[in-house]
Design goal:
4 domains, alpha+beta, elongated, Rossmann fold, binds adenosine-5'-triphosphate, Threonyl-tRNA Synthetase, Chain A, domain 2, single chain, ten-stranded mixed sheet, four-stranded antiparallel sheet
């Protein structure tokens, strides 16, 4: 205690109300220790020790593991009679083999053979064989006699005891031992289930799939437990082996476990409970997509919030996968009749049910799939003629102006309403600000992108397709933060149709079945097939099943790169129902506008502004160095690469490497190590930057400078 006495009297002399009083002590409490030791209750300490101690069996650590251990125990007890008989039979076979080896004097014979003296030793070996036959005969006679005598004197009881002891001895001899020939059946039956009971089978599968070496083993972190309609297990790989490699070679592991790869989910366990060598596996009992598809949960809700991820589908483990749409964009690609339109409509359904969203729908399939959206869409077109393509071009020009105007207005808003140059939920619902979440859905986007109608853009001759590609690329880069979402579906996900610059900036990707791994990479991103994600391997019968690479967190975890998902099934009747409800919600909220309100609002076009924006899309002149030069370089040379080696940038742009690294990190771009395949086919690990990071940094810098 540090105290000081204020000896002065508080009463002032002469004041009638105030009287003289004793000294007042004034002080402050000073702790000896800045952080006093807090006593941890013994129960908590015990619990902590129990969970972390390697001496406590795993099965006693959690309830689920204990229940599983109990189930395994019961199954083991029920199976034990058969296992015992099996072991005795194997013991008999092993015993017979050993006896044969002994009687044929195999070891002596082999030694003689090796030293090429078999002819010399032949008589000796024969004599020994004869002698051993005689010994065998004598032992048989002696045992038979002994049995008769014991049976005559003491009855059958001692014989039974001897028989039981002999069968136990045979069972011990015949017990399954790894690596001993003759004790392990060459076909272990349905391996899918065997590994759940016998971890050795799992270890063998990892070895067979060449994921671990012959002398290496796995450490069981969590024993096999029932999760949904399958088995789940978590294992640690031996030191230096990587979980990412197991994910990559999932197919080999599926083969080793004798299951279809669609039944096997392998994930790296990340975060606090995981590390680079910890693998979580889930094996479905049967094809998880053979069951009838589920209807979308949106049918059961009266309204949806566009800021919430939209229910998109289920993964093989039947986990619900929701797709975040705001602040990102989505590309759906597949060959015909695989469920692209269904997938794009699912994304749309969530936004339809939010009356504060504005929808643009361009259906170049010109079918019935999107017709119902007419009743909610601010702008709607269906057809594949030049006039439709040109109408889309005008919409995009309007959206470019809208995005620019939003950024301008956001700059003038105070920090409390708009803390960053990004739209917030409150801003999007504030009718005075007029910045609703705006989504543009373009089905069969390859139609406008391939259109060759010549147009004049501020004196520059272009085809409509090229200009639409440029507008979409600009929007995909800049519009998500301003609340404009792009959803593009294409039947032809090839590099010629969808410009690489556009692909690179689309945040979320969903690849249903495509023709080959190249097309799959075009939708999902460079080298995704080498990381174990190739949508050309999906089965044609699995309609609506695709690989989702989300931009943001999903139920499978924030760190999961991609996952196989089956979209919810939303046939036309359900879609119509949702659109009807979306219209009613908009009517009630007073937000029904444009085409849906029967008044195709005049386009607010600013072609000069849009052309200027597109012309300066990468905005290299606006950006600080070295970002400007890097952006210019990647626009010209990155194609559809996701990763640019530092050496390439430093070499091409003539930068000093250390200063370059420092400056790039100031703009939020940190380099990382990645494996790349060089032109001569070699794989090397190099340092470099993610193109997406560079573009994001450029967009931020560009926005900050008044794009
Ligand atoms: N999640 C799903 N579950 C089951 N079946 C589905 C699912 N999604 C789509 N399908 C089926 O796939 C068929 C094709 O779907 P969709 O029309 O979306 O294909 P598409 O890829 O857009 O075809 P196209 O390229 O010809 O336009 C649908 O008729 C539907 O029956």
């Amino acid at each position: 205690m540090n105290a000081s006495a204020t000896g002065s009297s508080l009463a002032r002399e002469g004041s009638p109300e105030l009287q003289r009083c004793e000294s007042v002590l004034d002080g402050e409490l000073v702790e000896d220790q800045p952080f006093p030791a807090v006593r941890v209750p013994w129960r908590r300490r015990l619990r902590r020790w129990w969970h972390s101690s390697p001496r406590v069996p795993l099965s006693l650590k959690t309830r689920a593991q204990a229940v599983q251990a109990l189930k395994d125990g019961i199954v083991a007890v029920l199976r034990s009679p058969w296992r015992f008989v099996g072991a005795v039979v194997r013991g008999l076979v092993t015993g017979a083999r050993l006896w044969r080896r002994w009687i044929t004097v195999r070891d002596y014979r082999e030694a003689a053979e090796e030293s090429q003296k078999l002819a010399d030793k032949f008589t000796e070996i024969r004599a020994l064989t004869l002698f051993r036959w005689k010994v065998t005969g004598a032992v048989l006679v002696a045992v038979t006699l002994a049995i008769f005598i014991i049976a005559a004197i003491y009855g059958e009881r001692p014989l039974r005891i001897v028989a039981a002891a002999a069968s136990v001895a045979l069972a011990v001899l015949g017990r399954r031992k790894d690596g001993k020939p003759g004790r392990k059946p060459s076909l272990a039956g349905p391996r899918t289930l065997t590994w759940t009971m016998d971890t050795q089978v799992l270890v063998d599968a990892f070895r067979d799939a060449k994921l671990i070496g012959k002398d290496e083993s796995l450490r069981l972190v969590e024993r096999a437990t029932r999760v949904g309609d399958g088995w789940s297990v978590i294992v640690d790989l031996p030191a230096t082996r990587k979980a990412a490699d197991v994910v990559k070679h999932r197919e080999a592991l599926a083969s080793a476990l004798a299951v279809d790869e669609i039944q096997l989910i392998v994930e790296r366990v990340r975060g606090n409970g995981g590390h680079a060598g910890r693998v979580s596996m889930w094996v479905a009992d049967e094809d998880p997509y053979a069951t009838p598809p589920r209807r979308t949960p949106l049918l059961g809700v009266s309204q949806w919030d566009a800021w919430q991820p939209v229910p998109f589908g289920r993964d093989a483990r039947d986990r619900r996968i929701d797709l975040p749409l705001v602040w990102t964009s989505l590309l759906v690609g597949a060959i015909p009749r695989q469920g692209k339109t269904f997938a794009a409509r699912l994304a749309a359904a969530g936004l339809v049910l939010d009356p504060h969203t504005r929808l643009y729908v361009a259906d170049f399939k010109a079918g019935k799939d999107w017709v119902a959206a007419e009743q909610v869409a601010h702008r709607f077109l269906s057809g594949d003629d030049t006039e439709h393509v040109l109408a889309l071009k005008d919409w995009l020009v309007e959206l470019v102006s809208e995005v620019q105007s939003r950024y301008r207005r956001m700059r003038d808003l105070d920090d409390e309403i708009c803390p960053e140059s990004k739209i917030t939920p409150d801003m999007s619902r504030d009718s005075a600000l007029n910045m609703p979440i705006t989504a543009i859905f373009i089905d069969e986007v390859q139609v406008p992108l391939e259109d060759r109608t010549p147009i004049d853009v501020q004196g520059k001759k272009l085809t409509a397709g090229e200009y639409i590609g440029e507008l979409l690329t600009w929007l995909a880069k800049k519009a998500p933060a301003a609340g404009v979402v792009l959803v593009l579906a294409t039947q032809r996900p090839d590099s010629k149709t969808i410009p690489s610059g556009l692909r690179a900036v689309l945040g979320s990707r969903f690849a249903l079945r495509v023709m080959d791994w190249r097309d799959s990479n075009i939708v999902l991103g460079e080298q995704m097939n080498t990381r174990g994600y190739d949508s050309s391997r999906l089965l044609p019968s699995h309609k609506g099943v695709g690989i989702l690479r989300p931009d943001g967190e999903t139920q499978a975890g924030a760190d999961v790169l991609a996952m196989t998902v089956r979209t919810y099934y939303m046939p036309v009747e359900d879609w119509q129902d949702i659109c009807r409800r979306g219209r009613a919600l908009r009517l009630a909220a007073g937000t029904l506008t444009g085409h849906a309100a029967g008044e195709d609002a005049a386009l607010l076009l600013d072609p000069v502004g849009a052309a200027k924006a597109i012309g300066s899309a990468p905005a290299p002149v606006d950006l600080p160095d070295p970002l400007a030069a890097v952006v210019e370089y990647i626009e010209a040379n990155a194609d559809d690469r996701e990763f640019i080696p530092t050496a390439e940038l430093v070499g091409a742009l003539d930068f000093e490497p250390n200063a370059f690294g420092r400056q790039m990190s100031e703009y939020g771009c940190s380099s990382e190590r990645r494996r790349i395949t060089t032109e001569d086919g070699e794989t090397r690990q190099v340092r470099g930057y993610l193109v997406a990071d560079i573009r994001r940094a450029a967009a931020e810098q560009g926005c900050g400078r008044g794009s």
